[in-house]
Fold this sequence. Notes:
CATH architecture: Alpha-Beta Barrel
Helix content: 25-40%
Largest sheet: 5 strands, parallel
Radius of gyration: 18 Å
Low-confidence stretches: 270-281
Number of helices: 10
Order of helices and strands: EHHEHHEHEHEEEEHHEHEH
Amino acid sequence: xxxxxxxxxxxxxxxxxxxxxxxxxxxxxxxxxxxxxxxxxxxxxxxxxxxxxxxxxxxxxxxxxxxxxxxxxxxxxxxxxxxxxxxxxxxxxxxxxxxxxxxxxxxxxxxxxxxxxxxxxxxxxxxxxxxxxxxxxxxxxxxxxxxxxxxxxxxxxxxxxxxxxxxxxxxxxxxxxxxxxxxxxxxxxxxxxxxxxxxxxxxxxxxxxxxxxxxxxxxxxxxxxxxxxxxxxxxxxxxxxxxxxxxxxxxxxxxxxxxxxxxxxxxxxxxxxxxxxxxxx
Length: 281
């Protein structure tokens, strides 16, 4: 199945970067020094290295930045925006803990930090720790967000369902944290960069053959991230490989979300099966 993506593209590519600096350790009550200092690498080397790669290939992408990291490294975050990349929200302390009733507070806090720093409000959000509630989507929409890149329920963008109603003013741009995320390879299986590159090439090839949507997730930090030289070279080589295929369109996720909302009948969201229990939080 070939879909009419923007500009008549055959395959749509979103490259997304989860900043995950000091917030990752601080949110776990770990002092971010010594063996817990990997997050410092994002601002010092990972982000500059990624920006060089994106400039080389003349593409723009989406960075998801926790509010705490924006407070710690404002110049780094501003350099991302100044290079033309989108910045979305990614929690405050990369919340991997149970938020409970504090969830709206953290959503609003990180939103305000990024808005004040950038002079514009983020419109995209990615869940930092995996937990969501029946408050999440309601608060995001109140704050003016138009998309979430946290759900794993499809290979394609799709409209979420809230309280039994399918929304048409908000879209899910699904992420694949199993095989299109660097963290599982480098943190759990310790896969060599050369093998990660081959895995992602195969993932892209199959997405391309389906005329589909390809959302890659990377981290600029050391440790489980791709900020170091050899792992960053994987990103460089993968972009070159993707660009060798005709009809590929790279977009920031804000561009993809706007297009999906403006062209609801041009992509298969309305054909996604819905279950009786489906309530998008």
